[in-house]
Design a protein that fits this description.
33% of the residues lie in helices and 13% in strands. It has ten helices and ten strands. β2 (82-86) and β3 (94-97) form a beta hairpin.
Length: 253
């Protein structure tokens, strides 16, 4: 109970500060428990991320559908890099955005949640495993994060599920870098402890800071089925696909 109360207190504190710099969402207004908001200064944070070696060395990148990284998705497509992303809450699965197949004047639209499904290609986990090279980078927004890269999100665990699925099918590994793009007010000073399935960021980009993390925890457990929220399994088709694939996949080391 005390742990739950602490999480609630941290979220309330961060969300109050975030409301001063956040942009409302057309679906969820300022309900930061339901979406990851864009914010004043996100372009500067995007500049920092794109100048960093993790991005510069990447060709195929997983980027979440969060509002604060819509500009990153657009600029990444403009640079000719491919993007794998999911629909909101992963309910319609994974989609590949390949800028070589998208008209130049449609790249901005393709980077949005509405446009990705018009200009991207839906991919099952089996197709991702068979057709994609190893993903070079994983990028997400988050509700809050501490300086050691431990994320403190909305509480749904979608990014950890995405990591777990992609790790399980072998297109990422424990050395695949991950990054979080956030406002400075979302960076916490306090100590947080990751769960076995939590993906800790290698780097954090804010409008004013680039923070690199030493030896971040990376899950090697795939999806921990007995700890998975049943609602997620019931509503996320790729999780259902992975569960059916498990017997045919090599055991995790």
């Amino acid at each position: 109970m005390e742990h739950t109360d602490h999480k609630h207190t941290v979220r309330e504190r961060v969300f109050a500060a975030l409301r001063e710099v956040a942009f409302a969402d057309s679906r969820f207004h300022f309900d930061f428990g339901e979406f990851i908001t864009d914010f004043v200064g996100s372009s500067a944070a995007t500049d920092r991320l794109m100048a960093h070696r993790f991005y510069q060395q990447s060709e195929c990148i997983f980027i979440t559908p969060d509002n604060c990284i819509e500009e990153l998705r657009y600029r990444t497509l403009c640079e000719g890099k491919r993007i794998l992303m999911t629909t909101y809450s992963i309910r319609r699965g994974f989609w590949l955005l390949d800028p070589t197949t998208i008209p130049q004047d449609r790249l901005l639209y393709a980077a949005t949640l509405d446009g990705m499904e018009r200009h991207g290609r839906h991919m099952t986990l089996a197709q991702i495993r068979a057709e994609l090279p190893r993903l070079d980078y994983m990028i997400t927004g988050t509700g809050a994060i501490n300086e050691h890269g431990v994320r403190f999100g909305k509480g749904h665990g979608f990014f950890d599920a995405e990591w777990g699925m992609l790790y399980r099918i072998g297109v990422i590994n424990a050395q695949t870098p991950t990054a979080a793009l956030v406002h400075d007010c979302q960076v916490l000073q306090e100590t947080l402890y990751p769960e076995i399935f939590d993906t800790v960021a290698d780097a954090i980009f804010t409008p004013t800071r680039t923070i690199e993390v030493t030896n971040p925890h990376k899950p090697r457990c795939g999806i921990v089925w007995d700890m998975l929220d049943p609602q997620m399994l019931a509503t996320i088709p790729p999780l259902q696909e992975l569960q059916a694939m498990e017997a045919a996949l090599p055991p995790l080391a």
